[in-house]
Amino acid sequence: MSKHNVKKVVLAYSGGLDTSVILKWLEENYGCEIVTFTADIGQGEELEPARAKAKLLGIKEIFIDDLREEFVRDFVFPMFRANAIYEGEYLLGTSIARPLIAKRLIEIAKMTGADAISHGATGKGNDQVRFELGAYALAPDIRVIAPWREWDLTSRETLLAYAKKHQIPIEYQSGTKSPYSMDANLLHISYEGGVLEDPWTPAEEGMWRWTVSPEAAPDQATILDLEFEHGDCVAIDGRRLTPAALLGQLNGIGGANGIGRLDLVENRYVGMKSRGCYETPGGTLLLKAHRAIESITLDREVAHLKDELMPRYASLVYNGYWWSPERVMIQEMIDHSQARVNGTVRLKLYKGGVSVVGRKSERDSMFDTQLATFEDDAGSYNQADAGGFIRLNALRMRVAAKRG
């Protein structure tokens, strides 16, 4: 499809320098009508300026959607049922937001009759893959325009020059701009670029936005009870909350206790290593508590099978395959396993650390005190049976040993 065949584009629009330039560049190079879409997924920024700026640039169809509850309920919570962690550490805060944005881009394209979508992800990052895989999965014939893979505006200076030439208003806030590339939503905030591009250079303390340093956290431990139903956290200290409100409150509690900082070198899907720093205080608490409630409610082999599937699931999310048939299939298995993951977990938060100090489930616990006790078990378990069990399991090793 040539540029002249594009009639209307839905642009994922933040109102910042990059997407404001993209808006004008699309008009100039594709001669098409532009629809802007701005998602509120809990990034903590005022979004109405994006509407005002889009209007100033002549946009007639402007969508600013509050997706916070959908984000946590339909994306974050299902992922946490899987205990998903990428490369042993990363809680996938950026990754899990992209399929929702792709979904809404396609929905708006269908509503407005657009034949293309556009985004501001660069040609070096993972987000271009995530946005576009999601879009093609939901609308196979959609056209995707990725300006960073087409234009010659390769630096902030060239973007600013283009904005000046085309009279695109840019807010200059001398001395306040972060030196980092940042992404935030209700699950996390990420930092890349600047001094972080040297993996030996430690992150500056002033970089962190959500968490105090562990050293500056309160000297008194915080005790927290998290209640789960069907694998999802539904209440904090007995108070039921919506998914978005619950995660927001956990972010505040965890951040005040110095919990959730991560400094990571990760393997991008496009082939390079990158260093990023992340704050995920609420997610760190949720993961710890979810594994704890599963420890007393899940069958051993079900729990182990989930752990085997988890790295594959996490890679699917990280690489942009949320809408793939294999992720959907794994999710159905995981969700089935959560039917009886109900109960309460007590956490202790102290100076950057979180530990489980209690877990209970009135109806669904598989923990049997009579079986587990080291005291007199009154015949509930015949210890002599263990001898035959061990000999049968040792049989193949004994045969191998005799063979020499």
The low-pLDDT segments are none
| Total count of helical runs of at least 4 residues | 12
**Structural class label:** alpha/beta
Overall geometry comes to elongated
Number of DSSP strand runs: 14
Percent helix = 25-40%
Give average pLDDT, whole number: 94
**Assigned CATH architecture of the largest domain:** 3-Layer(aba) Sandwich
* Main sheet characteristics: 5 strands, parallel
How do the SSEs run, as a string of H and E? EHEHEHHEHEHEEEEEHEEHHHEEHH
CATH superfamily of the largest domain: HUPs
CATH C-level class of the largest domain: Alpha Beta
First-to-last CA distance: 68 Å
CATH topology of the largest domain: Rossmann fold
Domains (count)? 2
Strand content: 15-25%
Q: Order of strands in the sheet with the most strands?
A: 3-2-1-4-5
Rg, Cα atoms, Å: 25 Å
Written description of the protein model:
By secondary structure, the protein is of the alpha/beta class. The chain folds into two domains: about 5-165, HUPs (Rossmann fold, 3-Layer(aba) Sandwich), CATH 3.40.50.620; about 180-300 and about 340-360, Argininosuccinate synthetase, chain A, domain 2. The chain is built from twelve helices and 14 strands. The protein has a five-stranded parallel β-sheet with strand order 3-2-1-4-5, with helices on both faces. A five-stranded antiparallel β-sheet has the order 10-9-8-13-14. Strands 6-7-12-11 form a four-stranded antiparallel β-sheet, with no helix packed on it. β1, α1 and β2 form a beta-alpha-beta unit. α1 (about 15-30) crosses α6 (about 155-165), α3 packs across α7 (about 245-255) and α7 (about 245-255) crosses α8 (about 280-295). The termini are far apart.
